[in-house]
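Reviewer 2 asked us to include a model.

Predict the structure of this chain.
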Amino acid sequence: MYSFVLTKSSMPVIGWVAELLGFIMDGLFRMTSAVGIMNIGLCIILFTLVVKILMFPMTLNQQKSSKIMAVMQPEIKKVQEKYKGKQDQASMAKMQQETQAIYEKYGTSMTGGCVQLVIQMPILLALYQVIYKIPAYVSGVRVYFDAVANAVMSQPGYLEKISDLATAAKSPVTDGSIDKVVDFLYKLTPVQWDTLQGVFSNAPDVAGIIAANSAPIIKMNSFLGINLATAPYNGTFIPNVAWLIPILAGLSQWYSTKLMSANQTPGDDSQSANMMKSMSVTMPLMSAFFCFTFAAGIGVYWVASSVVQIVQQLAINAHLNKTDLDELIRQNVEKANKKRAKKGLPPTNLAQAANYKAMKSKEEDLEAKRAAQIEKSKEIEKESKEYYSTVAADEDPGSMAAKARMVKRYNEKHVK
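Predicted model (structure tokens):
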């Protein structure tokens, strides 16, 4: 599968966000280079940290919404069961109204969670654009590749000369554009850089430019001995050091998802809770698979992102565990009322807002009564079995005498 990393996104929102993120990435690269550390892997980690910090408020709000949604689910489920099997228009309208009333009671909306995702999705897609297409968005990196590309393209018949090497790098140069040549150069391994220099050995000036720029390119593209532009899976199942990236990506993603699921209410069987359980298995496996097949730079981002997410999630869990749910709901209702006021709508009565503690206490009382009733029924059943199963030592339990004794005991018990 061939991909051209220098093709920038032409989508309006994603393209604009990618340009902004690329500017941040370029700033980080220049900053680290100024102190003598010219490494794309380090820049990806710093870049991930900066983006995660910028997105933290949205992450926190989303987690709060999930916490409230877990509390709402039992009430929503009752409404759904109430109208289960009713497909007429009037019933559907009533179910919609009652469900909307529950959302308003908690100060949220049916589209509240979707809004968070709509905001975050362009950022995430743009972020992948920058990580996967570093030379396209990071001018501090691009300058080294441009120097080599211009030198190579100055030679007659350069497309034929580099065709075999481009095929080996899985980045064929299909036309004479500098972007395609830089794309090809970005995919080269250290060994392939030596091969490229040998291809132009009859042009000393070009070979000299390749040698002068390949050294910093190899250095900046190497992270812990791993070439960031190539995938950890190289066509064979022989393990190599790059395999650590997808393995760490899968493990860190699993732990991050586990921490996120801790915010679900115990015993919650809502759709979001079931989805979280499913994600705890599928997401780590997907992370490992993609990191095996994508450029290692994507894997470094994935691992860094999960590690930062773990740290943030520990802080969020500690914060939410200390937060009173009734107070969180009250704040949510007040915030919703401010939005309603701007639209000219009447506010939701705070007195009608759900009291989670009271609801929880009531549920616990009912559960305790049910448990006591079940236990009492078991005791009665046990006593009854013992009472009627008593027979003489020399008596056959299935004999007529035993059955007669059982009838007699039954009559005696009911007389009493």
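The chain has three domains: 12-94+127-221, 235-323, 355-415. Residues 170 and 201 are 23 Å apart (CA to CA). We have added this to the supplementary material.
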